[in-house]
Design goal:
Blueprint (H helix, E strand, L loop, with lengths): L2 H10 L3 E4 L4 E4 L8 E7 L4 H19 L4 E7 L3 H10 L6 E2 L12 E7 L8 E5 L2 E3 L23 H9 L7 E3 L1 H21 L9 H12 L4 H13 L5 H15 L12
Parallel strand pairs: 3-4, 3-6, 4-5, 6-7, 8-9
Antiparallel strand pairs: 1-2
Helix pairs in contact: 1-6, 4-5, 5-8, 6-7, 7-8
């Protein structure tokens, strides 16, 4: 595809999401800029339900970046204070209480329900999230640690856990183990250090083709794993100036929420 064709495709991009009821892609915003309700349905406090909340957060971010007003709700069966606290640590935006808001619709144009596989079956478009299997982390009997889904005997920076949960497509079961967390920690540390170094180089815009690749990934069924692949390619591409690498990572982080610019100013 030529650069011109790619830019035309970018101009036409619309967020599309797989409806678990039919397996078909549907427009997340059928009415231009109409209010969209995103409702996360959880059943407790464990890595799978935290992944549900994180996917809902990504969906809210993607819609807002496209200019769509969003009403974000959390409808959970139990352990909501613990889940909210863990979500906040991961950078999840605040969600209103879904049960308090029941029947108080504001004339939203679309309703998107984020659910775990085999979980809630509300009417409307359902965004299904595959389970997380936690292994080798010294789990408590209920599958969670005393202070969160990762066992307390292994302190983990929240952004590392967020990256580990984003590394695989949400439709694929994810194994959360020491190796996965170590890989995420190494990647996050390397990227933050690189971003801090690139910030000292002359600023350059995000290359048009890279911007298209990033937007194509997140508009195509909210493919965060695809966005991470784009960032890895940009990191290794000798043709991309360092200033453009910096802008690319800062741009992508508006959706990924990994605090990639945290170490700015740490290098002299």
């Amino acid at each position: 595809m030529t650069a011109r064709a790619r830019l035309c495709a970018y101009a036409r991009l619309v967020l599309r999401i797989t409806d678990a009821r039919t397996g078909e892609l549907v427009d997340a915003t059928p009415a231009r800029r109409g209010l969209t309700r995103v409702e996360a349905h959880t059943r407790g406090f464990d890595p799978t339900n935290l992944r549900v909340l994180l996917v809902a957060d990504l969906l809210v971010r993607a819609l807002e970046l496209g200019g769509t007003p969003v009403w974000a709700l959390l409808d959970g069966e139990r352990d909501l204070p613990e889940l909210r606290a863990a979500g906040a640590a991961l950078g999840v935006r605040p969600f209103e209480n879904g049960r308090d808001a029941a029947g108080a619709g504001l004339g939203e144009a679309q309703v998107l329900h984020v659910v775990s596989e085999g979980g809630a079956t509300p009417d409307g478009v359902r965004v299904a999230v595959a389970p997380v299997h936690q292994e080798g982390l010294g789990d408590a009997p209920d599958g969670t640690g005393a202070t969160g889904p990762v066992a307390p005997n292994r302190p983990t920076e929240p952004a590392v856990l967020r990256l580990a949960l984003l590394t695989h497509p949400r439709s694929s079961p994810l194994r959360l183990d020491p190796a996965a967390l170590d890989e995420a920690a190494d990647t996050l540390g390397r990227w933050r250090g690189a971003v801090a170094a690139w910030a000292h180089r002359p600023s350059r815009p995000v290359p048009d083709t890279v911007r298209v690749d990033l937007r194509t990934a997140w508009e195509d069924d909210l493919d965060a794993a695809g966005m991470l692949r784009v960032l890895r390619a940009v990191e290794q591409d000798p043709e991309v100036p360092d200033g453009a690498r910096f802008e690319t990572y800062a741009y992508a982080d508006r959706l990924l929420g990994l605090d990639l610019t945290r170490d700015l100013g740490s290098l002299t």
